[in-house]
Specification:
The protein is mainly alpha-helical. It contains 14 helices and 7 strands. The strands form 3 sheets. It has a 3-stranded antiparallel beta sheet with strand order 4-3-5, with helices on one face. A two-stranded antiparallel sheet has the order 1-2. Strand 1 (87-89) and strand 2 (92-94) form a beta hairpin.
């Protein structure tokens, strides 16, 4: 009997689910601590400046009722203004962002994030929530006229800009989330360069305007203040708005200009005369209107940037270059819009409700005159564009040259197609057919149809073929030809085109007085004959270069030299 093998049964259990582990990147704690420290340092600087200023002006009788607690509240409100939040004093809303202080906070956070360079770039983003929470907590504890909710967007923006700056500097290659969009990363790098250049241009323009209007600025300052301490405090407060002045200068250079009151617009094309707030810095407002030609300054900056991009930021693919340029323009427009918006002041109601650049128009014009010009120049000098342009211009030049040659040929009476149609008789090579043999065959030829007909070629440097007026030699058999009297053995033909009167022979046609044929006169010395190469060549007494114009030996015939008789 056979043995049965044991059977085994397998049991299937529940399918295991994938495990998702959420973990913070290494270095997140250090970045989070940097955010907290940046918020504390920024708030502390604002409070110190406020308390020092209060201490300097506390002797003023107008501030007799102000206490240290009130000064601390003012410092908290300034911290809220640094985060781009409006200050509400009763029914009056004031909005004046000390942009230099805001940039200083961004710079402080960026420097503190340098301690996390040894960790993954993603860890830098941990500074955003920690900075935001700390900044809003300090604002709520000290400010008395600023809403925490209105300050939250500004706190997030400050932290995000610093973290993005750190990530971009720390990343040599595009991160994983941009592997499919490498042009986006390149566009952000280009935008950073463009913004740095625009900041330099704005600072230069503001400095030039301040220098040219220094007497007016100094006059406003002297009217308001007499104490040295007060002068220092006011000057320091105006320095905090330096980026605001740079934004106003850029808006003026671009063309849209800026408002100094709801009814007063200062631009390159207009310079109205109207009262200004008692702020010494506003004494540098341009008092003349040079015209919109000043926009060429920003266009020139765009050209220089285009050359730089062509040299250092050129992409191998034209499409990648276009996309990177679009990303650069978009990022630049976003930052400029935030910059110009934060540089707009509101110092009260009515006329003082608007001071600052025209945000949308200024942003659009700066991007057009600088970024677009730079990107267009970079694209125009791209190797692919240059190759296509050379190919197109070569084709167009060839077409123009061909048309010019056709018109010139038509004007000269030539055939534009080159077939010889329309060529004059004087320009055509002389051709004739002889019925006589050459010198080597004269003994065997009896003339007429018995002799072998050979085409006679005209002598010349080019040795042109024996064809004239578009008629082949075989087609010129005996049409219009006449024998020359006195040549019984050789049938000498007239040149084509010389008519023969009906019913007359070659001898009778030359029987008139004074016009006998040279063949009869020279019958004893030389027999009239035609050699290959002698037709169409003027003899000693002739002057014509073509057959049918000889004046001594009849049409197309001249006497042979004696040695050839």
């Amino acid at each position: 009997m056979g043995t049965m093998s044991p059977t085994s049964t397998s049991s299937t259990g529940p399918t295991s689910r994938p495990t998702i582990r959420i973990a913070l990147p290494n270095g997140w704690a250090r970045s989070g601590l940097a955010g907290i420290e940046a918020a504390l340092i920024g708030w502390g600087l604002i409070m110190v400046l406020t308390l020092v200023g209060y201490l300097a002006v506390s002797a003023n009788p107008w501030l007799g009722g102000t206490t240290w607690a009130d000064a601390t509240g003012v410092g908290g409100d300034l911290w809220g203004a640094t985060l781009a939040a409006p200050v509400h004093v009763g029914e009056l809303t004031l909005r004046a962002v000390p942009t230099l202080m805001t940039l200083l906070v961004v710079l402080i956070l960026r420097l503190l994030l340098l301690t996390g360079r040894a960790f993954a770039p993603a860890a830098q983003w941990m500074a955003v929530p920690t900075f935001t929470v700390t900044a809003l907590a300090l604002l709520g504890a000290t400010a008395g006229h600023v809403s925490v909710v209105q300050a939250a967007p500004g706190a997030l923006a400050v932290a995000a800009v610093a973290a993005l700056w750190a990530v971009v500097d720390q990343t040599d290659t595009p991160p994983t989330w941009t592997l499919g969009l490498p042009w986006l990363w390149e566009g952000l790098r280009q935008a950073r360069l463009v913004l740095a250049v625009l900041a330099v241009v704005g600072a230069s323009a503001a400095g030039v305007s301040l220098h040219s209007s220094w007497e007016q600025v100094q006059g406003i300052h002297e009217l308001l203040l007499t104490s040295t301490t007060d002068s220092v405090v006011v000057a320091l407060a105006q320095v905090l708005f330096a980026p605001t002045a740079m934004a106003w200068a850029l808006s003026w250079l671009a063309g849209p200009g800026f408002w100094v009151g709801a009814d007063t617009l200062h631009a390159p094309g207009t310079a109205p005369v109207a009262p200004i707030p008692a702020i010494p810095l506003l004494g540098a407002v341009p008092a003349t209107a040079p015209g919109n030609v000043v926009a060429l300054i920003l266009v020139g900056v765009g050209v220089l940037l285009g050359i730089w991009l062509r040299w250092r930021h050129r992409a191998d693919d034209l499409r990648a270059q276009v996309l990177a340029g679009a990303a650069c323009a978009g990022a630049t427009a976003l930052v400029l819009g935030v910059w110009f918006a934060s540089s707009t002041l509101c110092l009260g109601s009515g006329r003082m409700s608007v001071l600052g650049p025209r945000v949308l128009w200024a942003t659009a014009m700066v991007v057009l005159e600088v970024v677009v010009v730079a990107q267009v120049l970079a694209l125009a000098t791209h190797p692919y564009t240059v190759a296509r342009l050379r190919s197109w211009t070569g084709t167009q030049a060839q077409e123009v040259r061909s048309r010019f040659e056709q018109r010139r040929a038509a004007g000269n009476g030539e055939d534009p197609g080159g077939r010889g149609a329309g060529v004059g008789i004087d320009e055509a090579p002389a051709t004739t057919r002889g019925d006589h043999p050459g010198p080597a065959e004269s003994g065997s030829s009896t003339g007429g149809a018995a002799g072998r007909r050979t085409p006679v070629r005209a002598s010349g440097g080019d040795d042109m073929p024996t064809q004239a007026l578009g008629v082949a030699p075989r087609e010129q058999e005996d049409d219009g030809a006449a024998r020359v009297a006195g040549a019984p053995d050789d049938m000498v033909r007239r040149a084509p085109g010389v008519p023969v009167p009906p019913g007359s022979s070659g001898a009778a046609s030359h029987s008139d007085a004074g016009s006998r044929s040279e063949a009869a006169d020279h019958s004893d010395a030389a027999v009239p004959s035609v050699r290959s190469g002698d037709v169409g060549t003027a003899g000693p007494a002739g002057h014509s270069d073509t057959a049918g114009h000889s004046d001594a030996a009849g049409p197309g015939v001249r006497p042979l030299p004696e040695e050839n008789t």
